[in-house]
Amino acid sequence: MHPRIFPGDTSYRGLDLRLRARTHARRAAPPGAVVEQTHARHTAWRMQPALFLPTARQVNWLLLVALLSLGEALYLRYLAIEHAPVSLACQAGLDTWLCATFRLTIWLYNHSAFGWVALGASLINLLRPTILLVAVALAASAFGLVLHNANLAGLAAALLLLSLARPAPAAE
Fold first, then answer.
1. DSSP 3-state assignment of 51?
2. What SS3 state is found at 97?
3. CA–CA dist 87, 81 (Å, integer)
4. I need a surface site. Which of 4, 68, 124, 143 has the fewest CB within 10 A?
5. Where are the beta strands (DSSP E) in 17-172?
6. Mean pLDDT computed over every residue of the chain
């Protein structure tokens, strides 16, 4: 048997009994009596579209892509480009995978490819967010920030943050 509920009593088992008291009073009203109707005061949250937020599994993959890209960019910068013996050997014509990567990285850097790819992927992601575009923009931003394409890559990283505030694409 439940104890009698009094209006304003909120101590019963941590429940908000004021709502229960209103419901009970509404049911107990005699026929024809005017009963106060209660409506939700704040229903705006129901009308807001869902934001583009990756799932936990997708976040783990994005972290893996970002950290691997950052690690590779740091490796190329500090152990190939700025390390004098390796840099001089590669410029002299040594034919190894590191020197091929070194030459490709220098060519991409001269054309600001890392920054432009990051900016393009971020802009497209801002318009139509997908997890693949986030991964491409993250990887290119990491390379661009480490390999001196910081202006475009920094702008791309800021656009990536803005894309998290965008509504999720509608299901087709």
1. strand
2. helix
3. 5
4. 4
5. none
6. 82
